[in-house]
């Protein structure tokens, strides 16, 4: 066969091989499981951790001794930044949900104020005697749910605020180089790399529900780094040439940065309420070492410190019901300096896995 004939025969053969390869991935007829194709991937669900999650869980040791009810209000995105293709906002709209998760990790008692639509509908139905009785044990009584005054607990504080900063490309750096033989068909190559930094900022305030006095305000920001590296080569091989390149790019997750800032802020506010004085920093977690008893200081107004148990563990002692939940309207200027410590409460890795916060590098 002549070279020209082989050339025209090779093209349809390539297309045929490609079609056969794709046939193994997608079928025009659904299989017995009702799918046209099997989805790729198989990554398991993992816990959503930040470098401050371990310290938050440590705070549960304190919050159990002196329960405080906190409600989370609106924590909105005030940056106004959206994607250039109008596909949505650049920053998560679920910051309030992240704050609820952070408070839950810290063992704080939450009362729902963010979405009460279902509760309000239930109340409306119960008020119209449309919901059946739910008396335990089949006890005699009305055949509809009764509305009982005082059945909904109130909050001591509520948390509100917003994401106030999203600054792109605070600084970027890059370098590239290329070279090769001077001949037209000589081998040539190129390489390059770049890094850039952006940041997000958050402002939160903690408000006393009874007096509406703002008892704590905090403002934090976190920088986010991105990098890109590439290398390529170009060369002639006889009558053919090839151009190959390889590269890698990575950007620290923006929404993970938002979650980290929220968890740090919640930690600082909770730590101040309970006067822990940094006792739950990542290096001094009182629950992390089972060989040494480390008893945290009692909450404000509480003279009953947790009781150490054999083996180094400790359990909170009961608190009298007439004790105040926490200090109110107190001057906290003494610990402002510690709030500026960038590594306060910081844990460099995921406590659940040894492979890093969200996987190994």
Q: Can you walk through the features of this model?
A:
With 361 residues, this protein is α/β, with parallel strands linked by helices. It has six helices and eight strands, in the order ααβαβαββββαββα. The protein has helices at residues 3-23, 53-63, 95-105, 117-127, 254-274, 336-339; strands spanning 69-77, 109-110, 157-180, 188-208, 214-237, 240-251, 307-308, 314-315. The protein has a six-stranded mixed beta sheet. Strands 7-8 form a two-stranded antiparallel ribbon. Helix 2 runs parallel beside helix 5 (254-274). The longest helix has 21 residues, at 3-23. Residues 282-334 and 351-355 have low confidence and may be disordered.
Number of helices: 6
Compressed to H and E, one letter per element, the order equals: HHEHEHEEEEHEEH
Helix content class: 10-25%
Mean pLDDT value: 79
Distance linking N and C termini: 53 Å
Structural class: alpha/beta
Beta fraction of the residues?
25-35%
Oligomer class? single chain
Count the beta strands.
8
Low-confidence stretches: 282-334, 351-355
Overall outline = flat
Structural Rg: 30 Å
Strand order, biggest sheet? 2-1-3-4-5-6
Specify the biggest β-sheet: 6 strands, mixed
């Amino acid at each position: 066969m002549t070279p020209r004939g082989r050339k025209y025969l090779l093209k349809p053969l390539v297309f045929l091989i490609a079609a056969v390869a794709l046939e193994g991935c997608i079928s025009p007829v659904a299989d017995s499981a009702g799918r046209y194709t099997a989805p790729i991937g198989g990554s398991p669900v993992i816990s959503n951790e930040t470098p401050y999650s371990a310290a938050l869980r440590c705070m549960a040791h304190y919050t159990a001794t002196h329960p405080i009810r906190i409600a989370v209000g609106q924590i909105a995105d005030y940056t106004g930044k959206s994607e250039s293709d109008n596909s949505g906002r650049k920053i998560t709209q679920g910051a309030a949900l992240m704050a609820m998760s952070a408070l839950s990790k810290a063992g704080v008692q939450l009362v729902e104020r963010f979405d009460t639509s279902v509760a309000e509908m239930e109340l409306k139905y119960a008020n119209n005697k449309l919901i059946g009785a739910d008396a335990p044990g089949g006890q005699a009584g009305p055949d509809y749910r009764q509305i009982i005054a005082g059945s909904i607990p109130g909050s001591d504080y509520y948390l509100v605020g917003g994401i106030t900063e999203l600054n792109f490309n605070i600084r970027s750096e890059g370098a590239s180089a290329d070279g090769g033989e001077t001949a037209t068909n000589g081998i040539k190559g190129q390489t390059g790399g770049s890094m850039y930094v952006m940041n997000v900022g958050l402002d939160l305030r903690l408000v006393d529900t009874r007096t509406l006095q703002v008892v704590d305000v905090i403002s934090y920001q976190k920088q986010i780094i991105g990098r890109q590296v590439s290398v390529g080569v170009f060369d002639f091989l006889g009558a053919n040439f090839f151009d190959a390149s390889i590269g890698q790019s990575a950007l620290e997750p923006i929404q993970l940065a938002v979650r980290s800032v929220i968890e740090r802020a919640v930690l600082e506010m909770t730590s101040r309420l309970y006067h822990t004085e940094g006792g739950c920093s990542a290096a001094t977690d009182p629950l992390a070492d089972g060989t040494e008893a480390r008893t945290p200081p009692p909450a404000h107004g509480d003279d009953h410190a947790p009781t150490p148990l054999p083996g180094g563990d400790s359990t909170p002692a009961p608190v009298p019901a007439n004790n105040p939940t926490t200090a109110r309207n107190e001057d906290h200027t003494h610990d402002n300096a510690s709030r500026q410590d960038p590594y306060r409460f910081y844990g460099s890795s995921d406590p659940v896995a040894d492979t890093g916060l969200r996987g190994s590098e």
